[in-house]
Structure formats: structure tokens, C-alpha cells
Q: What sequence folds into this?
């Protein structure tokens, strides 16, 4: 049976601004960490870059680093802060016992698990965390649930590196354990289309708004 015709949903998907734990290579997972000063600046530059893009709705992870980034987008887009929708389905991958530890600490304490993590073993998860397959299922279901409500509209999804990684894989047909060759930069602009048949990639890792602003700042 063919799927009913639904106007495609334009999606602008972004990772939150930088945090102190990003700089320290410390696993945040679902621990609620705020933006650092650079992250706040990135969020403002992102908001200004999207101001005239005709966003109709903004959805965000309910973790502070994503929510604060989403509020900066809303300010520039003329969307009321209370209209920014929090969605726990957009949270970062749960990393269980890895959360709060640096990459080096994980390598030292759990070398075998660290290897499984680096190899992206599809059905393996840190104790108390999610596997790549579980994360993919969650992201796919969350995006479908959100996008189906907004046929023909333009929505922003503000989330995390793990979520953005799965969006790219879903849109390009990559397996969860395929080697990553794409970037997941803080506050980069990533563009997709959604229909009931799935996601399509339009553009990825646009950081011109951050690069130009940084040059202007250093030469002012």
C-alpha cells in the first residue's frame, strides 16, 4: 500500500553550543551541563544566521545546553520562548557509567568497553546506557512523531552530537557502525527533508556564520 502524499517538512538540525565538558572531552550524555562563554556566543551567531529562514517551530532536547541554544534561535526568529517545545526524545545518548568521565579515564578504567565504544558495536551499551541501535530507534521515532505534525513547514531541531550523528546516518542509509566521515560541530547548520518515507539530506555542517563572525571579531 502506498503512503499518502504529505508535503515535505524542512528540518534545520543543530547541535548545541560548546560546553566546558566538550573542551575537556568529558562525556556528558544526559547529565545537564550548561553552555560555556564560547557556546553562548555560538548560539547567538546561529540565531542571527537563521533569523530570516522562516522557521515555524522549534523543538529542543530538554537538557540545558540544547534548550539555551534553542532560546537564542527563537529570539532572533521572533518565536516566543514559551513556544519552544521541550522533547526528551532529542536528548543525547545515555552513556551510563561513562557519563562524567573523560575519554582517557574511560580507556584506563574500561579498556574492553572503550574498544566496543570506538568500534560502535551496534547492540552494545555502557552499563546503564543506550546502544547505537537503541539510539537510532529513539531518534527515528522522535523525528517522525514531531515532523508528522508539521507538513509543509520548516522546523528546527536542537539536540546533541549523538542525535545529529543518527540523523545523518538515517538520511544517507549508513549503518550505525559505519566509520564516521562527517562533522558534528557545535552550532553548525544541518538541513534535511522529512516525508513519511524517511529523511533526505540537503546540506550538512554549514559553519560560515561562525567563521565569518570570528574573523570580524578578531579584526574589529
A:
Amino acid at each position: 500500500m502506498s503512503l499518502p502524499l504529505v508535503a515535505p517538512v524542512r528540518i534545520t538540525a543543530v547541535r548545541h553550543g560548546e560546553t566546558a565538558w566538550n573542551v575537556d572531552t568529558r562525556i556528558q550524555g544526559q547529565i545537564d551541563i550548561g553552555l560555556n562563554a564560547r557556546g553562548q556566543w555560538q548560539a547567538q551567531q546561529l540565531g542571527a544566521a537563521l533569523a530570516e529562514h522562516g522557521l515555524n517551530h522549534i523543538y529542543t532536547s530538554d537538557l540545558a545546553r540544547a534548550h539555551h541554544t534553542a532560546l537564542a534561535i527563537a529570539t532572533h526568529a521572533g518565536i516566543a520562548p514559551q513556544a519552544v517545545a521541550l522533547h526528551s526524545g532529542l536528548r543525547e545518548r545515555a552513556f551510563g557509567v561513562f557519563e562524567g568521565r573523560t575519554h582517557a579515564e574511560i580507556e584506563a578504567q574500561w579498556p574492553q568497553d572503550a574498544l566496543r565504544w570506538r568500534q560502535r558495536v551496534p547492540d552494545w551499551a555502557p552499563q546503564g546506557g543506550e546502544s547505537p541501535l537503541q539510539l537510532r530507534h529513539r531518534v527515528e521515532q522522535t523525528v517522525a512523531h514531531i515532523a508528522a505534525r508539521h507538513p509543509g513547514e520548516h522546523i528546527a531541531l536542537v539536540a546533541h552530537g549523538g542525535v545529529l550523528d543518527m540523523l545523518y546516518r538515517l538520511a544517507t542509509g549508513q549503518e550505525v557502525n559505519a566509520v564516521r566521515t562527517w562533522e558534528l560541530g557545535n552550532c553548525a547548520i544541518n538541513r534535511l527533508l522529512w516525508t513519511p518515507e524517511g529523511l533526505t539530506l540537503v546540506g550538512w555542517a554549514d559553519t560560515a556564520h561562525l567563521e565569518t563572525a570570528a574573523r570580524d571579531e578578531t579584526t574589529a
Remarks:
- The helical segments are 20-23, 37-50, 64-77, 103-109, 111-118, 132-147, 161-172, 208-219.
- The mean pLDDT is 94.
